[in-house]
């Protein structure tokens, strides 16, 4: 089996834990994680002022190389990504191929801005509910999966989110192994709404 590859897209103001926690869990599962910035190769100031050094500039990404895309949230990070045309192009390409897209916190607003998955069941940080409810079937659950789209509420649900992505990419057994090693078994598939 070939190594799965995940692209985490970040921008100034992205939520730190929503970048780092999924990357940590997925790398623990043997997934190759690439963090790409919409701003280039320079360090990005996350929402709390912590600097995140991207692996690559988003403009240098091969959009066919990844099995999944992760969109962290953030009150300014998500709007910054929503306004980036390249993010939209990559998301549409990825969605058209039926590949996994995972968005947390206000990350689902980036899907909305780019017309991705309208009519699907999703969740988000509570501030996104009103605008997202216009085009999606909004569900107030910690994590929601509808087909190839996984969404989650925010920093408090980041472990559920990371483990659900891992389960989709490497299967439940490897995900359980990593969850147990990280003392996260209680977060595995806890209150997950799945619409198949």
TrEMBL record:
Keywords: Cytoplasm, Oxidation. This is DJ-1/PfpI domain-containing protein. Its main location: cytoplasm. One of its GO terms (biological process) is regulation of phosphatidylinositol 3-kinase/protein kinase B signal transduction. It comes from the Eukaryota. PANTHER family: PARKINSON DISEASE PROTEIN 7 HOMOLOG (PTHR48094:SF12), PROTEIN/NUCLEIC ACID DEGLYCASE DJ-1-RELATED (PTHR48094). It is found in: Cytoplasm. Gene3D superfamilies: 3.40.50.880. Pfam families: DJ-1_PfpI. NCBIfam families: not_thiJ. Residues 4-167 form the DJ-1/PfpI domain. GO terms for cellular component: mitochondrion; nucleus. The keyword Cytoplasm applies.
